Amino acid sequence: MTAPDTESLLAFFKALANESRLKMVGLMASGERTGEELAELLDLKAPTVSHHLAVLGRLGLVETRVEGVTHRHSLVTDRLAGFSKSFFEPADLEKLAAAKPSFEDKVKAAFIDKDGAIAVIPASRRKRAIILAWLADHFLEGRAYKEAEVNEILTRRHWDCATLRRELVGHKMMERENAVYRRLPTSEWQMA
User: Fold this and answer.
1) What is the pLDDT of residues 73-98, one digit of tens each?
2) Helix 19-28 vs helix 46-58: angle between axes, to the nearest 10 degrees?
3) What 3-state DSSP class applies to 152?
4) pTM higher than 0.70 for the full model?
């Protein structure tokens, strides 16, 4: 297994920072468990167990085997060992210190949620330009978009599509003519 990146390690530690998930890992270390067994042993409701198993599954720490109507969950010890090994290898730890997110990455992380929706349009012009550039990447350069298409794409990201349309045109990321929009080349964008 290659060394996990910073995001993978953060997700790993966040997942195991939950007491119930940590106990689940411990219970599955001795062998397969059904969701019902885990719920009973941990005094949790079935939907809560399913949620925790999904979090661990997304990290590749849990595998599920279907046997009729029964789902058996087991710990992927190789994956767990891979995370552990990379965390304690000095060379890999040094890489974590060097992996510094850019200002743009920090702005996107602050204003765009994990589902790709903009929580709030930034007040700062510099930060807003970064979010607008991210939005502009949802459009193909040169392709003609009707206003309704632009609204549909923007509304998936934030409810105020009118403001976002105006801002994209104002920053020269898109042009508008007769209610038809086109994305402009990045060389023409006004980021400041």
Assistant:
1) 999 888 888 777 766 666 666 666 66
2) 80
3) helix
4) no
